[in-house]
Every structure is written in structure tokens, then in C-alpha cells.
Design a protein that fits this description.
- There is one protein chain.
- The longest helix is centred in the first third of the chain and has 23 residues.
- This protein starts with 15 loop residues before the first strand and ends in a 5-residue tail after the last helix.
- The protein has 15 helices and 13 strands.
- The chain is of the alpha/beta class.
């Protein structure tokens, strides 16, 4: 990778990147919003194309006021998509038939993924036309699943190179087209080291170096870490979507264990999602209503102040039985930025930031007893906990530096397309 001091992209560079997503902006994808905004600040022309319509629930005022160009598809684009398909079929019948054979009728992980892939596949025909009209130099999908399918189809039709980012649930378990997309991609970016080896498996043997590691560029508030007093009742925070990879049932079980052992703890579990009813029912069955608060979704721009009320963040991620998992949850870095100590499970890339005994405690996944013991150990040694929080703050400031990582990403885009040296 080129030095971050060397700027390939400036405001005078006529270089345009298409960002392809299902939705944009999306309240749960603030890191993608921030990535796009920082790239725009460097001078890249960014055109956003969403496969679905508008979904602004929970988005901050800043996200709602996104100044860039967004082309949304969704159901209203059904007939334009159909028109683009038949135009391509008329002009390039052999290529269209080949694409249909390769990418349309493919086995996916479930019906939802199949529906997403089929829609995005067809949307790729309209995306190809839009990218050519808009003068796009690189089609980049921010996810490896449906959006990358659309980018792949658009690239094959238009000749514009494409790339994608593989993160977590979009590559575990693998998409049914991941090998085909990996073979044709100009490069594959990932945001944690654990994913590099996994994604290389889907690349041709002589192209494994196309997988590039660039961590997310996170914008941290520059504040002095709050001194935490660690006095009973201890205040524990957990944040995330209520889904199968977050491990919140194990956290509730650990809370019940701590209560039985006489430890005064209170948990605030922030989020919502498909597992909400299950978690509310579990809280009731474990008699935890008085010590587990579940306030629902809290907008991202309110969370930084929210952090200051708590002693400890717990991230009990698990790998689902089908392979689905987290990458490195951004809540970890956001907590460490404020000096908040973290207890987390050793899943995927989490150990890249939570170094056991140095920047937090790591425990095995699906082990409520180990989770409870680590929470107790952290809370009962406030001096060491604060030391680890400060060490974590220094680590994430280096790993997730906005300027360095944005520049590295811009250099990768530009050099890969324009043939500049990039390594």
C-alpha cells in the first residue's frame, strides 16, 4: 500500500466511484456513511446507488442531509430495470444469457438471500446504464452479497471495473456467488485481518493478493476519558441489533449468575431486532426486570454521551451454527475511545482490538460462566480496568485513524483503476 502521505486523489482528479448498497444512509451503517463523506472530503466524486428505496428511520440529522448524489431503485424501478434488461439482451444476447446461467439461479443461504440476490442481479442491468451515464470509473459494493451481485453484473455489461468490501454477515456463510465475484473483482477490501484468509479462499490461486486489509475509518470525539468509579451497583452496557450473532442470551444468563453470586450489577441492553421478544421473555423468566433495562434503539449520535453513564461494555458475540458472525463491532472501538473497558468474546476480528489482559478481557463464545467471571474480575479491579481502557484508546486511535485509513482507501481505488503502483 502506498504511503498515506502520498495523495493520488485530489479535488482536481476527475475520478468517480460508485458506491452500491441496499440502503443509504442507514442508521446501523454509520461507518459506511462516514467512509463516503471522508472520501468526498478528499476530492473523490462519489455516486451512491441503492438497490432498495429510502429508509431513514433512526438516521441523524447529518445523515439525512447527505449532500451527495443518491440514485435509489426499489420497487418503483421495476419497469426501468426490466427495460434495461431487454436493451442489454438485444445488444449483447450472448453475454446476458451467460450472466443468467452464472448468477441468477444460484443456491443461496436462505430464501431472503435468494430474493435479495435475484433482485440485485436484475438491478445490475439498470446500474450498468446509470454508471455509464454518470461517468463512473470504479463500481464498488460496500457489501459482498446482493449489492456486489449488482456491481458484478453492471461491470460485466459496462466494462467498468468493480470491487467489493467483505465484512461479516455478508461473507459468513459465503454468498452463493462469492467465488465468481471474487474472481472478477479488481480487488477485495476487508476491514479486519481475520477475514483476509477467508476471502482468499474464494480467489483464483494466483490472485489471492487482491484481498486488501484497510480498517474502517471511524470518527472519534476528541475528549478526555471519563474517570469511572466502579462502585456498586456496577453499570454494564451492551449495544447491538437483537439478532443471532450478538450473543445476548448468554449475557442475560451471565447476569443471572452474577445476581445469584450476590454481585450488584445493572445492565442496559440497547437495541432492537428480530430477537427482541425472545430477549424480553428471557429477561422475565430469569427474573431480571429490576436489573436489566432494555430502552430500545438509541441513535448513534446520542450514544457517545450515553457511554459516560457506564463502567463497562460487554460484547458477547457468537458464531451462529451456519457460520454467520460479527467482524469487529464498531461499538468496541467507540467505547475504547472513551476509555471504557471492554469484556468481549473471541470471535472473528475482535481479538485484533481486545488483546486479552492488555486492552480488555477476551472469553470463549457461548460460555456464560466465563463471561460472568470476566465481568466480575474487571469490575472488582478498577485500577487495572481503567489502565486497559486507556491502552485500548491508544490502540484504536492508531488502527482506526480517519485520515490514514481514508487516504489508504482512496489510494487503493485510484491506483487499482489507473494502474499506479500500490504496494
Amino acid at each position: 500500500m502506498s504511503s498515506t502521505n502520498e495523495t493520488f486523489v485530489t479535488s482536481a482528479t476527475p475520478f468517480c466511484v460508485a458506491y452500491v448498497l441496499l440502503w443509504f444512509p442507514l442508521s446501523s451503517e454509520t461507518f459506511i456513511y462516514r467512509e463516503i463523506r471522508e472520501l468526498m472530503n478528499l476530492g473523490l466524486r462519489i455516486r451512491v446507488y441503492t438497490m432498495y428505496g429510502k429508509s431513514l428511520k433512526g438516521c441523524s440529522k447529518e445523515m439525512r442531509a447527505f449532500p451527495g448524489k443518491i440514485t435509489r431503485m426499489g420497487i418503483k424501478s421495476f419497469f426501468p430495470i426490466l427495460g434495461a434488461f431487454f436493451r442489454a439482451l438485444r445488444k449483447k444476447p450472448g453475454l446476458v444469457v451467460s450472466l443468467l446461467r452464472e448468477g441468477f439461479f444460484r443456491r443461496m443461504r436462505n430464501l431472503e438471500a435468494l430474493g435479495e440476490n435475484c433482485w440485485c442481479f436484475m438491478a445490475g442491468f439498470l446500474l450498468a446504464e446509470k454508471c455509464q451515464e454518470d461517468g463512473v470509473d470504479l463500481i464498488h459494493s460496500a457489501w459482498a452479497n446482493g449489492p456486489a451481485t449488482a456491481a458484478w453484473v453492471a461491470s460485466r455489461l459496462s466494462g467498468i471495473p468493480f470491487a467489493f468490501t467483505g465484512r461479516a454477515g455478508d461473507i459468513y456463510p459465503q454468498d452463493g456467488l462469492l467465488a465468481e465475484k471474487s474472481a472478477d473483482a479488481l480487488f477485495i477490501r476487508t476491514n479486519n485481518a481475520a477475514n483476509v484468509r477467508w476471502l482468499q479462499k474464494f480467489c483464483p490461486a494466483d490472485q489471492q493478493d487482491k484481498v486488501k486489509l484497510i480498517y474502517n475509518n471511524l470518527t472519534f470525539r476528541k475528549t478526555k476519558p471519563k474517570e469511572r468509579h466502579f462502585e456498586p451497583p456496577y453499570r454494564i452496557l451492551a449495544i447491538g441489533r437483537f439478532v443471532r450473532t450478538k450473543g445476548f442470551p448468554q449475557l442475560l444468563t451471565a447476569m443471572a449468575r452474577l445476581r445469584r453470586e450476590g454481585m450488584q450489577v445493572k445492565l442496559t441492553l440497547v437495541g432492537n431486532g428480530s430477537w427482541g421478544r425472545k430477549l424480553f421473555r428471557m429477561r422475565k423468566n430469569l427474573h431480571l426486570e429490576d436489573c436489566v433495562e432494555m430502552p430500545g434503539f438509541i441513535p448513534h449520535d446520542e450514544l457517545e454521551n450515553f457511554h459516560e453513564k457506564f463502567d463497562l461494555l460487554v460484547v458477547p458475540s457468537v458464531i451462529h451454527y451456519n457460520g454467520d458472525r460479527d467482524g469487529i463491532p464498531n461499538v468496541i472501538m467507540e467505547a475504547l475511545n472513551g476509555g471504557m473497558p471492554v469484556v468481549a468474546t473471541d470471535v472473528c476480528g475482535i481479538s485484533e482490538v481486545i488483546r486479552d489482559g492488555e486492552t480488555g478481557f477476551l472469553v470463549p463464545q457461548r460460555d456464560p460462566a466465563a463471561l460472568a467471571n470476566a465481568i466480575r474480575k474487571m469490575l472488582e479491579d478498577s485500577k487495572n480496568a481503567q489502565k486497559m481502557g486507556l491502552a485500548g484508546k491508544a490502540l484504536v486511535a492508531s488502527m482506526f485513524d480517519t485520515q490514514n485509513n481514508t487516504q489508504a482507501l482512496a489510494n487503493l481505488y485510484f491506483s487499482s483503476v489507473r494502474g499506479q503502483p500500490n504496494g
